[in-house]
Amino acid sequence: MNLGIAIINVYYLVKIYSARAKKEYFKILSIERDSEYFSHFLNFYREGIKKFVDPAKLKENTYEVSFYILRNMVPAGVFLGSKYDENTLKVELDFVIPEYRDFKIGSFIYEESKDYFLDRGYNRLISYSTNDEHIEYLRKMGFEQKEDNGNKYFEKLMKK
């Protein structure tokens, strides 16, 4: 009986570790201005988005930078940014659906996709947040806390 349990345990351990080693596919997909899917996405994840930003402000896609993050061809997140100044993009929303919150998408956006921002003239990203969970995420993604006239914000410099 112990031998049977050991074999079952080994089987599942192999299955777990081989799944982790599997290469995942990430892709940035632009959001069209009048995207019906974008509206549905925001509405469906409204409660989760509320933790970070007022969803009512996100009804229309009027952002300088807006894209879905696909993970293994599944729309796993949304990124929205507006031009703050000549070389700075203000991150308005960086939202990942709960099933994919393991920092891999954040690493894909802020590390592997640096050229996406640099090619559009942005070498500095800023984000404002008072949510502790979001602040921890920003720090893990390499953002540093700054202050300007008593206003706290987070900054990430993008370099090749």
Automatic annotation (TrEMBL):
- What region holds the N-acetyltransferase domain? 14-160
List the InterPro entries hit by this protein, alphabetically.
Acyl_CoA_acyltransferase, GNAT_dom
Q: Which domain of life is it from?
A: Bacteria
UniProt feature coiled coil, ranges: none
Biological process terms from the Gene Ontology for this record are: protein homooligomerization
Named from the GO MF annotations, one term is: acyltransferase activity, transferring groups other than amino-acyl groups
Q: Which PROSITE patterns match?
A: GNAT
Q: Which Pfam family is an annotated match for this chain, by its short name?
A: Acetyltransf_1
Q: Can you name this protein?
A: N-acetyltransferase domain-containing protein
- What species does this protein belong to? Paraliobacillus quinghaiensis
